[in-house]
């Protein structure tokens, strides 16, 4: 019996001492990786495609190699940020085909309504270059945060959609998204149709 007391007494004293310490413990907030942004520099994209624009030097322009890819489909790969801007181009055959493509762009943007907290639309209008379209900024935990289309309303239709290869968490990708949106804005503002 005495042996039991000799064993429990030190354990009890240790618990009392530990309980009497005045340590305010609070859990540390979740941290994120430090993001180092590259310097903004741009180069001209020109190929046999019927359009040209400027895109950032820190992104790689890659031909789309997916099984359904068509001519003049590209992926602008932001390797540092694990994101892709998917770029597709279509020749416009007639007004019905044009109307269908515009409606498809709207449907694809608003498909994210379930998870989106907001979808803002902005008209794109550069009449001197015959570049018109709509820019969709999609906020919230959605798969795509930016979508847009550009057209001359008669022959050409160009669409872009930004995706990150990460689980959608808007608060964690927001700084990178703001950085890449400036690149997309530059692409749109320098976009030209070839004659």
Structural class of the helices, strands and pairings? alpha+beta
Task: Give unreliable regions as ranges.
Answer: none
The amount of helix comes to 25-40%
Tally of separate domains: 1
What is the C-level CATH assignment? Alpha Beta
Largest sheet: 7 strands, antiparallel
Characteristic key phrases:
three-stranded antiparallel beta sheet; 28% helix; 195 residues; 35% strand; 10 strands; seven-stranded antiparallel beta sheet; elongated
Written description of the protein model:
With 195 residues, the chain is of the alpha+beta class. It has a single domain, classed as Protein Transport Mog1p, Chain A (3-Layer(aba) Sandwich), CATH 3.40.1000. The chain is 28% helix and 35% strand. It is built from three helices and ten strands. It has helices at residues 2-20, 95-110, 170-189; strands at residues 42-45, 51-56, 60-63, 74-78, 83-91, 116-126, 131-140, 144-151, 156-164, 192-193. The strands form two sheets. The protein has a seven-stranded antiparallel β-sheet, sandwiched between helices. Strands 1-2-10 form a three-stranded antiparallel β-sheet. β7 (131-140) and β8 (144-151) form a beta hairpin. The longest helix has 20 residues, at 170-189.
